[in-house]
Design goal:
Largest sheet: none
Distance between the termini: 55 Å
Number of helices: 9
Order of helices and strands: HHHHHHHHH
Mean pLDDT: 76
Shape: elongated
Number of strands: 0
Helix content: over 70%
Low-confidence stretches: none
């Protein structure tokens, strides 16, 4: 018997019932390579399933994080090792010239870490930031660090929202979508706090 998923989450019940954790891995991971899938919604649904005992909370969090980081890094690899040639060849057809691509690369070199970490909370950026970072040739270790931090916060926020809010999650999620700028600001603040904590810990170890 499946858990009761409210409203917009109801359509995900058959997928979770049949595939469980694998459904979370697939939807979240494939979203990271640019495919528009309901990765955010499946995390919330996974949290609801964990609260009802159909899944377990810690594995939901772990597979969500691994899928998010893995998918984004696959997108990064596509952008870095295959996407640039495709963009240079077909970019002019979508008004993406060499000059605009160069500007994108310079932007990521200076502020790419902000897009990579906070972009997890923004539809569109979430699907494209890995590919864009690869195209901009952002250093992989730098990308991985910020991506992992942003993904950890993103996964925890939505899984725990589903776990704690239960049947009230649809109202909460609708409100977040309506006031998305505040959600983005909150996500950014949390992400910055996490990154600052990691930096302070590294300084303490080095000292």
């Amino acid at each position: 018997m499946s858990a009761q998923l409210p409203g917009i989450f109801e359509s995900l019940a058959p997928t979770l019932d049949r595939y469980g954790y694998a459904a979370i891995v697939a939807l979240v991971g494939l979203e990271g390579v640019g495919i528009p899938l309901p990765g955010q919604l499946i995390l919330i649904a996974g949290g609801i399933y964990a609260a009802s005992g159909h899944l377990t909370l810690v594995p939901v969090l772990l597979v969500g994080l691994l899928a998010a980081v893995g998918g984004d890094n696959a997108g990064y690899a596509i952008g870095r090792y295959g996407g640039r040639g495709l963009v240079l060849r077909f970019g002019p057809y979508v008004f993406l010239s060499r000059e605009r691509l160069a500007k994108t690369e310079r932007f990521f070199a200076r502020r790419g870490h902000i897009v990579v970490s906070v972009g997890r909370f923004v539809d569109g950026l979430r699907q494209a930031s890995g590919i864009a970072a690869g195209l901009a040739r952002m250093r992989w270790r730098r990308y991985l660090a910020y991506n992992a931090a942003g993904s950890a916060v993103w996964v925890a926020v939505w899984v725990l929202a589903g776990y704690l809010a239960g049947n009230h999650i649809e109202t909460l999620y609708t409100g977040v979508q309506r006031y998305g700028i505040y959600a983005l600001a909150t996500g950014a603040a949390i992400t910055v706090a996490v990154l600052a904590g990691l930096a302070m810990r590294r300084q303490a170890v080095d000292a």
